[in-house]
Write a structure and sequence with these properties.
The protein is about 55% helix and about 0% strand. The protein is an all-alpha fold and about 475 residues long. It has 3 domains: about 80 residues, no CATH class; about 180 residues, Alpha Horseshoe (Serine Threonine Protein Phosphatase 5, Tetratricopeptide repeat); about 180 residues, no CATH class. Helix 13 packs antiparallel against helix 14 and helix 15 runs parallel beside helix 17. It is found in: Nucleus.
Length: about 475
């Protein structure tokens, strides 16, 4: 048998990928036929030379002619820059396993396409490595530097590729996953709400574009990736908006675009939220309503949009709330384990009660926390908090609902109970969510003691505008 090393080359020109694979290259512009057929990176000498590095090819490999540098291609895929990057990329399928709800199907714990995408695409690898290196339990100076460098490299490549348009379906999926990981990094760890919302806003546009073209894909692995992305978008846009006052525009509602990904109200289709995506959709629509119509702005003599439109939009929100108020997913009855089922039913109930309080305040901006209707919802939620341990490590589902309950507390006893629960949840959350929760209860504590001066009359008036203290508060 003829050895591979002595086999005659079919080409000495063309792209570096074909030269390395010993294939004849048609030298088509931008991407040759072989690389297009195999859907792999097409690397050209001109591109490598413009970067100032030297490639090992059949035309420049000559004996004793200077130093031999590292090969620039690895079977057509981008090479790893370090052993740490290689290890993190190898572990890519389980990158989001810590965020998967205990109610979800175990299939979501491993996402094989994350590994495939990070191998094929530099932009996905940069984003995934930036996320996993920063969130890794064994953090070090090297992992921090790798995370920062990968984040910057990903942003540079996205800025270069997105403006000119990403036309191929695979490239669109790559960009979608990359932006999702950047948003998760900002939302969970770094804590810059503005950047996180912008990332997920772009992620929403990319996913909506994919679904509008092809609908729900037939590939189950790709459907899983799209569902993960959709839930990341829904949860983060819904829960980041109420805490951020710096956004200069309202993030658009995703409408019915994502509904095709969730054909049934089933916990197995909701890996992150445990069947709560309808709650977070309403939560986000409420935030958009507040930004659009500003019901708490007493100095606004003329509304931004006609009062009729405001009333119609509010009626739609109230109708949406009535649909989910008593709609505990029937799939919870099929879940093994009574404790697990009770945990999620109780969480959903508290979220619904908090949204009921929020909508009541929006419908009647002058209503006080002492109102009987509001206090019925508050006391029902507090009764659940007294008797149920709803803590689930890493799950920030109740961060904003607890803040709503704290704002609606009518006396110091109820307020201290909610704050005590908020402190318990703070210990099990990621740095960004824990910080937002801490800012909320410290703001209310200092307001109650007269330390903070504000134009708002009562704490419940906070629900008419976003709550995000401009500067971190310190313990009184």
């Amino acid at each position: 048998m003829q050895r591979l090393s002595s086999r005659k080359l079919k080409t000495k020109t063309g792209c570096l990928t074909c030269v390395a694979r010993r294939k004849k290259c048609d030298e088509a512009p931008s991407r040759c036929g072989n690389c297009t057929r195999l859907d792999i990176a097409c690397v050209w000498r001109e591109r490598i030379q413009s970067d100032g590095s030297r490639a090992i090819t059949s035309t420049n490999l000559r004996a004793k002619k200077g130093l031999i540098l590292h090969a620039t291609i690895t079977n057509g895929y981008p090479p790893f820059r370090s052993e740490l990057e290689k290890r993190l990329t190898t572990e890519a399928p389980g990158a989001l396993s810590a965020l998967v709800s205990c109610m979800a199907s175990p299939d979501f714990l491993k996402t094989s396409l994350f590994g495939t995408f990070s191998t094929e695409s530099r932009v996905v690898r940069h984003a995934l490595v930036a996320f996993t290196a920063h969130t890794s339990a064994l953090r070090s100076e090297d992992s921090y530097r790798l995370s920062l460098r990968s984040y910057q490299d990903c942003i540079v490549e996205l800025r270069a590729s997105l403006p000119r348009g990403v036309h191929r379906a695979t490239e669109q999926s790559h960009a979608l996953v990359a932006v999702m990981f950047l948003g998760l990094l900002e939302g969970l760890q770094i804590g810059d709400s503005r950047n996180a919302v912008m990332h997920f806003d772009m992620c929403q546009k990319l996913l909506s574009a994919r679904l509008s073209v092809e609908g729900v894909p037939k590939d189950p692995a790709l459907v899983k990736v799209y569902r993960l992305a959709a839930e990341c978008i829904m949860y983060n846009l819904a829960t980041l908006l109420p805490f951020d006052t710096r956004l200069d525009r309202a993030v658009e509602d995703w409408g019915s675009t994502f509904e095709c990904l969730f054909p049934a109200n089933d916990h197995e289709l909701s890996p992150f939220l445990g069947g709560f995506h309808d709650v977070y959709r309403l939560m986000m629509n409420i935030s958009i309503y507040l930004r659009t119509f500003q019901p708490g702005n007493s100095e606004q003599h003329e509304p931004l949009i006609e009062s009729r439109n405001s009333n119609q939009r509010l009626a739609m929100l109230q109708k949406e709330f009535l649909m989910l108020e008593n709609n505990i997913p029937a799939s919870y009855d099929r879940v093994l384990g009574e404790e697990r089922t009770r945990l999620y039913v109780a969480k959903r109930k508290i979220s619904v009660l908090a949204l009921k309080i929020h909508l009541s305040k929006i419908a009647e901006p002058t209503i006080l926390a002492s109102d009987v209707v509001l206090q019925q919802s508050v006391q029902e939620a507090l009764d659940i908090l007294r008797h149920e341990d709803l803590r689930e490590p890493g799950n920030p589902a109740l961060r904003w609902p607890l803040t709503i309950l704290a704002c609606a507390a009518d006396n110091d006893v109820d307020l201290q109970l909610v704050i005590a629960k908020m402190k318990e949840f703070e210990l099990i959350l990621d740095p960004s969510n824990a910080f937002k929760l801490r800012c909320s209860y410290m703001f209310l504590q200092q307001w109650a003691k007269g330390v903070i001066r504000t134009d708002l009359k009562t704490p419940i008036d906070i629900l008419l505008e976003p709550l995000c203290p401009a500067k971190p508060l310190t313990e009184p």
